[in-house]
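We modelled each protein-ligand pair independently. The example shown here corresponds to the zinc ion entry; the chain sequence is given first, followed by the ligand as SMILES.
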Amino acid sequence: MSEGPDGMFILARLPGVAAAKRDRSGGGSRAGPGGWDAEGVSEQQLSIRFDPQLWLFLPPRRRRAEARPAPWDGTSSLGHVVQSLGVPLTETGTLTVDGRPALPSQRPPAGATVDVPAVRRPQALPLSPPRFLLDVHLGSLARRLRLVGVSARYSNDADDPDLVDLANEEGRILLTQDHGLLKRRNLHLGAYVRGSRPDDQLADVLERFAPPLAPWTRCTACDGPLVPVDKAEIAQQLRPGTRRTYDTFARCSSCGRPYWHGAHTRHLEAVVDAAARVSARSTG
Ligand SMILES: [Zn+2]
């Protein structure tokens, strides 16, 4: 594999070789022992301080309470600089430059100190109640949100551009643990979900957005609203044991699935109780 035309191909893709090629074709020349400066642009710096709540997005060397120098090309916007260091703008509060509030689209003056706070909790939203769209890895969280009555759309085969389009079209907040997805320029509303256990993820979403809860009102399978239904109407869908034991039923108005409060709901009741406690804390 390392000989002949294939070997040449691989060699040409090595970073050092590609850079040397660019240098020749661009007509630039070596600027000296410190590196090259073919465009005549020297690197400037900003000082950036991140709230500790945002450190999980940063490499370990940047996880410091004091402002740290960051390279800056002199033209990029604040938002670009923050995201290129690793922190999605969906996770930040109001940025400040030398103590004054600044928009992500602004260009900071050279040498400025930029402060990046975490988003406030509960987060103010342009829509109420908040509705969500979850990425393919968050199916368990989607079912828990539905259980407590929060609208959570989920599909296990949507790709990233589809997710962004769907969230924007339906005015939903895209929930994900994919940093790159949150950095997409055209995404209107998104949030990083903290925690690896679905119960922790649910607490995180409830703390951040404080949605109103309405347990046992949504289909956990499809997000459709549940409506009360007479036992006689769904008797055919029930196993004989269920038909004998229970009298109060609901049905999903979207997919038709029957629901009743049974012995197997003890675990779900624990999830609902925990959610209610988190919600009471978040809404003060
Ligand atoms: Zn349903």
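The domain at 132-216+265-282 is CATH 3.40.50 (Rossmann fold).
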